[in-house]
Amino acid sequence: MRHRRKGRTLGRNPSHQRAMLRNLASSLLLTERDAEFDDNAPKVKGRVITTVSKAKEVRPLVEKCITIARRSLSAIEAATQYESSAERGSQEWKAWRTSDTWQAWNQAIAPAVAARRRCLKLLGTKEAVAILFDDIAPRFADRPGGYTRIVRLAQPRLGDAGQQAILEFVGVRDRVVQKSEKPAFDDAPRAEEHEVADSEVTESEASETAADEQAQTNAEETGAEETGAEETGEADEKKAD
Length: 241
Known about the structure:
Blueprint: H1 14-30, E1 47-51, H2 52-71, H3 73-79, H4 91-97, H5 100-123, H6 126-139, E2 148-152, E3 164-169, H7 187-240
Antiparallel strand pairs: 1-3, 2-3
């Protein structure tokens, strides 16, 4: 029986699996860093290329961390009204540190601190956690889920021909679905032209029909006269005999 054997092993033992998924999730978050003067800057922000199996395994971890950070935004906003703008270590800051305002700030910020510690345990990188709470979470504040997408690549990986895929954040390179617009025809003039043409055709057909009926009537009358003349001639011949 497969008790507690959920997910893909990916050819690794459990500790190696967890380490690999942490590193991959942290790599995806670190692509959003400010790498202007970094020698190892990411090619595209918010995107990593890996295999399809690894992308499917790391996606729940990334989305779980984003959900935790997104839910802590309310606590961070509530704590802003109690925080001090004084420089850390100054006399004003020390006075605020020993006041009741700091106690209120501490109570308000506690859920956000717990969320950061939880994400640090899941990711294992402080820099990735900072990017997660400072940049990624506010971006998805109004999105209740589905923060990433997996796009398969047509070209396999060199070496083992593994199926590659792109794991990236949504909202940047989304496909815009547009419905095709209905052709703008000039309906009114063409409708009038069609009506005029239809009326002309109807009048011509009516005149042709009337002419045919008149010709048929004339033909019938002529035939009747010829038939009467023949009958009259036959009667005269009989009388003469």
